[in-house]
Amino acid sequence: MFGYVRPLQEELKVRDLRRWQEDYCGLCRCLSKRHGFFARFLLSYDMTFLYSFLTMDRQPEKPEKCWCPAGVLCRKPCRRQDMAMEFVADMTVLLAYWKLRDEQKDGSFFHRLGARMAAWLFRPACGRAAAAWEKQDYRIRIQLAKLDRLEKARSDSIDETADAFARILQGFAAWWRDPAQRRPAEQALYQIGRYVYLVDALDDLRKDCRRGSYNPLRFRFHVQDGMLRPEDMTYLLQIMNVSIDLAGSAFELMKRTQRGAVTENIIYYGLPAVLKAVAEGRFNHRKKQVRT
Amino acid sequence: MNDPYEVLGVSRSASDEDIKRAYRDLARKYHPDNYVDNPLADLAQEKMKDINEAYDAITRERAGGASYQRQSSRSYQKASYYSASNHDLYVRVRQAINSGDLETADNMLRTVREPDAEWYYLCGTVAYRRGWLDDARRNFQSACSMEPGNPEYQQALRSMQGGGSPYRQSYYGSGSDCDDLCTSMLCAHCLCNCLGGGGHGC
């Protein structure tokens, strides 16, 4: 996805940061094992968050050692592959594939060519993932098609467009059968999905205005020189902070062990810090980092 | 019932003061005011009940088994601010919202020809429950401007303007340099370890 859902490392205990890194490396290895070497390039902080979120009610466990292609000299501690990790790896591939298929429809010739080639590369992986999780695949396609329709119709409703994207994340809560865990997970993931869509729209606003591409904020608010008016910005930040609060209040109702600490950090510290950085134009586009 | 100490997240050797503090923190976190119009209000209420019971059990146990009833003032109940509306439809809409049937509530609201303040408030509530916060905020604003003296509408609007969680201090600091995991961690962490670092070396 986009890399907006990440922990604020200063506020994380060393052991929790280590767990986050093990999850990250474990997911990277799992992507490669299941879908080939190139699937590693689809790895993102957002999907690592999803894995941490789905496993927050498990007991902490010892990591394994694995070879990392980026550091040939040594092995790194990484999380053991399990069903949740396979699920997240498959969802990563599905989301990437359908997004690439979407990008083939518009943009410049080279952009479309690139998307077509990448989609071709991941096609077998997508087939495997879709066969394993038919319902999720169907849901992702339905929601992305809805989003595409709304974008073509130049919708001025940020709620409706964000809803289509948020529902994709919300659906991942089906991982839990127990409604006492699933219902809060649905709300937390829905609000985080909404946050990701809107923060991405805010981050891309200037670029979209320059290129004339669709951005829901352009149609909902009065945009001048790729910037929102200060009162509109305040308004948007307020409703996005309510999203973060709702995700937090849902998260508080979920069962979790020590492994939930990373998710807690992301919701209470990571999301607000990234939002603030994006609003102030301090979010690094190239590396997707928060700059001071 | 679960171990009351576990529910409050304290050890058995914790002092009375620590237990009271843990209870107070949890009660603030799961207070019904934090879950007003939230679809998860029932789960929060259950959690609140567990916390109250656990606190009662510990207090009873520590008082030497003497039966000790918590004063009613400590059990939090949601206050009702509902205005005395005679409009049957709005009553039914509120019932539908409370039972979680947002589709029916929405359909009933669509039949109203002349929207008044309560109509906007109810539309806002339906949107809020769906997580459509922009719609919710606009509707609450309309309700408040039509009927500025109504505490229920104002409370709803305030909850949308507040930002920042009521029970948790969010970090709104100056941001930070989150190092990219794949580069700095790989280089620094890995090299340090290889050159005789801690237990995670090669």
Low-confidence stretches of chain B: 66-86, 163-202
Number of β-strand runs of chain A: 4
How many domains, in number, for the residues of chain A?
A: 1
Write the H/E string of chain A, N to C: HHEEHHHHHHHEEHH
Oligomeric description of these chains: heterodimer
Could you list the spans of chain A in which at least 5 consecutive residues all have pLDDT below 50? none
SS-based structural class of chain B?
Answer: mainly alpha
Question: Strand order, biggest sheet of chain A?
Answer: 1-2
Strand content of chain A: 5-15%
Radius of gyration of chain A: 19 Å
Helix content of chain B: 55-70%
Largest beta sheet of chain B, briefly? none
Structural class of chain A: mainly alpha
Element-by-element helix/strand order of chain B: HHHHHHHHH
Broad CATH class of chain A: Mainly Alpha
Based on Cα principal axes, name the global outline of chain A: globular
CATH topology of chain A: Farnesyl Diphosphate Synthase
Description:
The complex is a heterodimer of chains A (292) and B (202). With 292 residues, chain A is mostly helical. Chain A has a single domain, classed as Farnesyl Diphosphate Synthase (Orthogonal Bundle). Chain A contains 11 helices and 4 strands. The longest helix of chain A is centred in the middle third of the chain and has 25 residues. The radius of gyration of chain A is 19 Å and the shape is globular. Chain B is mainly alpha-helical and 202 residues long. The C terminus of chain B is likely disordered. At the A-B interface, strand 2, helix 6, helix 7, helix 10 and helix 11 of A face helix 3, helix 7, helix 8 and helix 9 of B.
